[in-house]
Amino acid sequence: MATITWTNQAEFWLKEIFDYIALDNPIAAANVINDIYEKAQLLEHNPQLGYQYNHESGLDIRILLYGHYRITYLIKNNVEIEILGVFHGALDIEKYLVS
């Protein structure tokens, strides 16, 4: 079973998502964030569940879809998962992941 950690950047994105949705519906915002966390927990037993992000870094970066959001994560040694960010599908994640 893999361990999952969330980067500060990923936590920041979750807060942004929550704040945006909560402007109209705080309960829905909490539900979306909880659902994103639950979806990410699936990676504990199946780290390769998401599709591989096509990038030349050589790192095993993957994307797991949840509704309009993309949970982007890095697999390290197949036993450690680092959630890099949670991005709305309309965003160009290239500018956030490539540095």
TrEMBL record:
Q: Which Pfam families does UniProt cross-reference here?
A: ParE_toxin (PF05016)
Record's family?
Answer: Belongs to the RelE toxin family.
- In its keyword annotation, does this UniProt entry include Transport? no
Question: Among its keywords, does the record have tRNA processing?
Answer: no
Q: By what name is this protein known?
A: Death on curing protein, Doc toxin
Annotated keywords: Toxin-antitoxin system
Organism source for this protein?
hydrothermal vent metagenome
